[in-house]
Design a protein that fits this description.
about 20% helix, about 290 residues, Diaminopimelate Epimerase, Chain A, domain 1, single chain, 6 helices, 17 strands, 8-stranded mixed barrel
Length: about 290
């Protein structure tokens, strides 16, 4: 039996409030996958990150939901590097983390903001308005009125990017069972639904994320999906290459994420997502 300290962190906070909680376990080299899953279940957050040493990268990080290991998690990455910074284990600078999504760069700024590089986008599939309308319970004509496609994009995890007209986002009442069945059938992680904000707003879009297949009915901040959304907007709109996303409003837990996309001859060459975090406590778990 081993006594494990889990550091509890809110990621993508705004003014120290809101955000999405993640667990962070340091010195996790000797923990088995079964132990990590047990810890993640005891923590009960959407994801818990486990930090281990690596011969090439600065750290190796694995991510567990309450049901399974996932290849990457944006808000848990932010929580991890903010924790390492706050505990004096890393200083401001540039680092590389090994994940199951690959070797990814992470920058820690002097003010504590963490900016993480994501995988280059992969467009994996597309769905009709009629297919998604049945799952979300929104009329297909309403979805079509956005005049934007519904696509599966991955910058580490595969999410269905779904635009809705302004004013409809908060009206969605997700059916966890139906969404989970759809995601399982089509081998995607979840739905990332967004509405564009007005041009005078400081926000680019407001978002909601549903991943019930992985035990996450709704999440208040999803860094990987916001990276995918930034790539989607770069291709399909003229909104530029730097974005600010709000998520969690419907959960009364607003989170703010920044995202930037670099392109070379119209091809995306770099995707980053950043934000702030706040340590909210610790938890001791025996496994």
């Amino acid at each position: 039996m081993v006594d494990i300290e889990v550091i509890l962190v809110n990621s993508f906070t705004t003014g120290g409030a809101g955000g999405n909680p993640a667990g962070v376990v340091l010195n996790a080299d000797k923990l088995s996958a079964a132990q990590k899953l047990k810890i993640a279940q005891a923590v009960g957050y959407s994801e818990t990150a486990f930090v281990a040493s690596d011969e090439v990268a600065d750290v190796e990080v694995s991510f567990f939901t309450t049901t399974a290991e996932v290849d990457f998690c944006g808000h848990a990455t932010l929580a991890t590097f903010y924790t390492l910074y706050q505990r004096g284990l890393l200083s401001a600078g540039t680092y590389v983390q090994r994940t199951k999504a690959g070797l990814l760069r992470v920058d820690i700024e002097a003010n504590g903001k963490v900016v993480m590089e994501q995988q280059l986008p992969q467009k994996l599939a597309g769905f009709s308005y009629q297919q998604i309308a049945k799952v979300l319970g929104i009329d297909s004509k309403i979805l079509a009125s956005c005049q934007l496609p519904i696509e599966v994009i991955s910058t580490g995890l595969s999410d269905v990017i779904i635009p809705v007209p302004n004013g409809y986002l908060d009206t969605i009442v997700p059916n966890d069972e139906v969404i989970a069945q759809f995601c399982n059938k089509h081998k995607v992680v979840g739905f990332h639904v967004f509405e564009l904000c007005s041009p005078e707003s400081e926000l680019t879009a407001s978002c909601r994320n549903f991943s019930p297949l992985f035990g996450i009915p709704e999440e208040s901040a999803t860094g990987s999906a916001c990276g995918a959304l930034a790539c989607y907007l770069t291709e399909h709109t003229a909104l530029g290459s730097d974005y600010t996303f709000e998520q969690g409003r419907a959960m009364k837990c607003t989170s703010i994420m920044t995202a930037s996309v670099s392109s070379n001859n119209a091809a995306i060459s770099k995707v980053t997502v950043g934000g702030f975090a706040n340590i909210i406590g610790t938890l001791d778990i025996i496994v």
